[in-house]
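Encoded backbone
================
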Amino acid sequence: MSYAFDWVDAFSDTVFGGNGCVVVHGADGLSLDDRMALVRETSLSECAYIVTSDKADFGARYYLAGQEILMAGHPTVATVVSLVKRGLIDLSGGRADITLEVGSGVLPIEIMQDRQGRVGVTMTQHRPVFGATHDPADIAAIYGLSAGDIVGIPQTVSTGTGFAITVLRTKDALRAARLNLSALAEFTAGTADTFIEPFLVAMGGETGSGDTFSRLLLPPPMPAEDPFTGSATGCMAAYLWEHGLIDGPVFTAEQGHWMGRPGCAQVVVLGPRNDISGVKVSGSGVVVMQGDLLL
C-alpha cells in the first residue's frame, strides 16, 4: 500500500526549526503496529495519521514510538499545515475555521495565512484538569536537581494529555537538568492519574520575545529531548495562570533553542484564574519534504 505523507516542522516558520512530525494521509487502514513503527523509523517523538471522522471536519490520531497519545500540540499544527499544503483546506480568503477530532475529542482550529504564504494554526485545547500534586524533592531527584530549585508545588495538569508541570527558579537549573531513567521509572510507577513526564519551565524566554522557556526530557525509545511540546505548553499555561505565576493570560512560550531547533507559540489562557475554560496555543509550520510511504 502507498500512503502520501508530509514531513512538517511545527512551531517554526522556517525549516529545521521547532518540532518535526510526519503526517500520513488516508491512514484508516494502517495498522497500529505500523503507525508506531514509523515513529521509530523516523526517530521523531511523534507521527500523525489523518483518518475519517463523523464528528469533525477531519480526524487525526497521534502516536509515540510505543503508544497512542490522545492529544499532542505539534502534531496538530503539522496535521493542519499538511492539509493546507495539499489543498484540502480552503485559505483563499486568508483564513479558515475547522474542527479536528483527535484521541481526546474535537478541537476547534483557526488557520491564518499571511501574504508571504506562511500558515499559522491556533488550537483551542480542552478545559484543563488539575490532577495530583507532587513532592518537589521527588521531581528534583529525577533531574539531579534539589528541591530548592523548584518554585511552588509541581502538579499534573491535562488539556488532553497530562504533564507534571514543574517551575524552576532559574534557567541555570533548567539547563543543568539531566534525566535519571531509574528515578523517572520509580516516580511514574507511583502516579495514579494521567501522566507522561514532568515538563520543566523557567520564567523568561531565550529571546527578547519570549516569556517562558521549557524543556521536556524523554526516555527511550523516544528522542532524548522534545524540541517543542505544544500540549504541555497548554498545560503549563493553565498552571501558571491558576497559580498566579504570570501577570496576564497572554504570553509567548519558547522551547528548543538549546537544541538548535528554536520554536515558539503564542498562548492565551481562556477564563479567570479560578475557572479556566481552555487554552489557545498558536504556532506556524512549514513542510520540509513530501513523499509516499510504501508498506
Notes: Residues 73-85 form the longest helix (13 residues). The domain at 129-276 is CATH 3.10.310.10 (Diaminopimelate Epimerase; Chain A, domain 1).
